[in-house]
Amino acid sequence: MTSPVEAETMMAIAIEGGKGPASALKPVQVPIPEPKDGQILIQVKAAGVNRPDLLQRQGGYPPPPGAPDTMGLEVAGVAARAAGRWKVGDKVCALLGGGGYAEYAVVDARHALPIPAGMGFEEAAGLPETVFTVFANVFEHGGLKAGETLMIHGATSGIGVTAIQMGKAAGAKVIATGRGADKAAAAKALGADVAVDVTTQDFAEIAKAEGGVDVVLDMVGGDYVPKNLDALKTGGRIVFIAALGGGQLNIPVFAIMMKRAVITGSTLRPRSADEKARLAGEVERIVWPWIAAGRIRALVDKVFPLAQAAEAHAHLEAGAHVGKVILTTGD
Length: 331
What we know:
Number of strands: 15
Distance between the termini: 22 Å
CATH architecture of the largest domain: Alpha-Beta Complex
Helix content: 25-40%
Number of domains: 2
Strand content: 25-35%
Order of helices and strands: EHEEHEEEEHHEHEHEHEHEHEHEHE
Number of helices: 11
């Protein structure tokens, strides 16, 4: 069954020269993508804006082979062409390799999930990239278990607010760090057991006073690394998902040896289609019931029309957001 997609072109956001948002991001008309075997076509209602999008705009994070040149790693919308388990009209959110900043997007049917009951498109569009990233890094690579302590840096980012809630849903103690008293308070309101304002407090000393941490989710790097190791329990794990504070690390090797620490990290976008499908299955099996039970909610900071993607990027770069920045198509 196919849907009556009558238009041949759609609005998408292209990168056209320059690295600043206003100079680089422009609305353009492009052909509506044609799904291949095993793909669904989604009429996009909302798309998440993520830090990897900022890197792509600046030329530092090119799309993987076969992915669209346009940005956008997560969307929510309505299936407009069926494939796999999905019928035309199904409400879905999906993890993309690119192309989400558009009115239509194609995706491997296995990388889409049903929008949780009672959740709108704007909230659902902020789930896939963040939930997949947290699940893969905190629970699979970091091996977080109930009763352990998780420390999250950048706690009011889209990743951070999701990690706080997923950590608590899994039965962990959560220590969250942020820059400023307002961000620490927001992390506490989301369920963090301990919230640290790193502009006035030493997160390593506070973590040690709390008994140390088993897993650190770090998107900062730089001079946070020695302090992460100091806060870590024996056998603890540090997982990197970004390096906003510096990507070159000066790591005290003997501290790693003494703590029997594991230091790892990953990216999501370059993973194979089969690996993303496996991850989607695990997320639906484990995390979707937490959402249904009200233990995790999608936190949207600000919504912009698709044509204002440049303004959305500027807002994200300013760093004052708490939760996700979302684009909507207005349909």
